[in-house]
């Protein structure tokens, strides 16, 4: 018992000694005489006119407002506690007060400040770095508590106080600030709006993240905003988020000290933090993730998700999945880990966030697949090679065919321009006209033109999403939703005209069924069927097309006469069956991407990747072929330039018939059927209207062609 009393008394004595020592430190002893009282000092310093010229020649006021001083944090202090260098014999006109040493009373803060970035710079003699007065107020006689709304370091005033230096262009240039507009960024951030606009005192201000007197550069490990410690700093408010992040792949990488491991500021930025529900954040997050995961980002951008989010308006971006929609937010984990959103146990649920009908097969879709990667994606690689070979093969063959034809026509025109002019004049002046296309066929062609241009106009910007013109087109169309709707309407129109054409063929075959029967027995005759299928009036290719192609090529090289053609040429038959191929390939692949949940009930989600490659490349082939090869064959040739209107008018003049399709003309004359095709010339009544639409379609195609070429060239370079 005595020992306890003795120990307690000893502690009290030690405590009293410490208090006495602290008071002695704050109250310096008088030098030679009794220290002047505050009343003595204020007898002179309460005069508003009291001034002094300092060493630099600047007149400074020596006035101290007694009321403000009394209300300040220093109001209970004696003047001599801070101005300990002034003698009791003051006033002395030649005596200048030394700078106040705040560390006498604020030793802990002074120690922290001396080790801070501000203190170290100031210690080097650079007085531009913030000192006590720069933050707490230049007039230390009026310093108020940091909790006082009048204080420069009051929570809601702090951004302006810090911003005096950190948003100062001269200071930013001098010290190479990483964030030279920090004040404006913070004010517009979710933190700044919560604190300054909504008055939520729980929202963080500058010192909550950077510290008070112990501020350090972010690159230093001791800094509260250093990547390693940032989760701890942010976790003061976002504790659950911080704990989730620590268990994520990113948090574990940061804990291991892996270079490049992302912390809070890498994804949310430093000062311009915005709500994660903001569509702008979603758009920016893709770029931020791509900064570290460049390989995945590149191939994500090639998917519909990636292309759409690049072209979507901010209001539409919420519908398009970004990286975090699949991988998670703060809980990002390797897909092999059971808790990952992309693990085999969780991936279907993740897909169902946007695709309610998704199943395990659907989840086999590869969102980052690289068709060039033969090792990891062998199937996609083979599909890519096939489509690329098809694309190059068609353009090489028909490109050479078109080039040779153009050169040969130019040479022929140069040698005998009068022949071409006479043929052109005869075609324009001719009054004898014959039917080439029926009204139904012309109607179908109108559907072909309108649907094709709609599909190209809404589809090619997705393929070339990285170009400025793609963004402009989508903006003019009305955005992603409108483009998607129009694209699907174009697809439905395509299926409509294709179905109508097949129906017309079936009706025609039924009406002409007697042509394939033996006239004597009435039984089916295979030879007669063969003759009907491969007759000159049929669009089915025959061996005669190869003979005409060979003759045409000989003419290209000046080795023979220019061939005469029948009702259909070999290139027209190719164009005709190209539509069958295109509708089948583009249509099927498009339906798979349109209804992936349905089709993956029967096939693997991997087929969606295949469908994208096939659909994209086949569409490029179709657009490129129509706007170059087909346009030359029908419009760019010297005989037809600038526009062949036969598909709109449905009629062809006798002079054109004899000049271009002499075999058909001779066959009609020999069979006595020429008059069946003859008609009155009503073309002048419709010529202006038809040409207007024709040139509109034609011009749109040429513009789209130039944009496609620009997009492809810009990507190469």
Walkthrough of the structure:
The protein is mainly alpha-helical and 717 residues long. It has a domain at 294-364. The protein contains 36 helices and 5 strands. Strands 4-3-5 form a 3-stranded antiparallel sheet. Helix 22 (378-415) crosses helix 23 (417-429). The longest helix is centred in the middle third of the chain and has 38 residues, at 378-415. The relative contact order is 0.05.
Distance between the termini: 91 Å
Low-confidence stretches: 1-33
Main sheet attributes: strand count, strand direction, barrel closure: 3 strands, antiparallel
- Please tell me the overall pLDDT: 86
- Give the count of helical stretches: 36
Topology, element by element:
Layout: H1 2-26, H2 38-45, E1 51-53, E2 59-61, H3 66-71, H4 79-82, H5 107-115, H6 117-123, H7 132-136, H8 158-166, H9 169-175, H10 182-188, H11 190-197, H12 206-210, H13 227-234, H14 239-246, H15 249-255, H16 264-268, H17 279-292, H18 294-300, H19 304-311, H20 323-327, H21 347-351, H22 378-415, H23 417-429, E3 433-435, H24 439-463, H25 468-477, H26 480-511, H27 526-533, H28 543-556, H29 570-594, H30 596-599, H31 606-636, H32 646-649, E4 651-653, H33 654-660, H34 662-671, H35 674-677, E5 678-679, H36 683-716
Antiparallel strand pairs: 1-2, 3-4, 3-5
Helix pairs in contact: 8-10, 10-11, 17-18, 22-23, 22-31, 24-25, 24-26, 24-31, 24-36, 26-29, 29-31, 31-36, 33-34
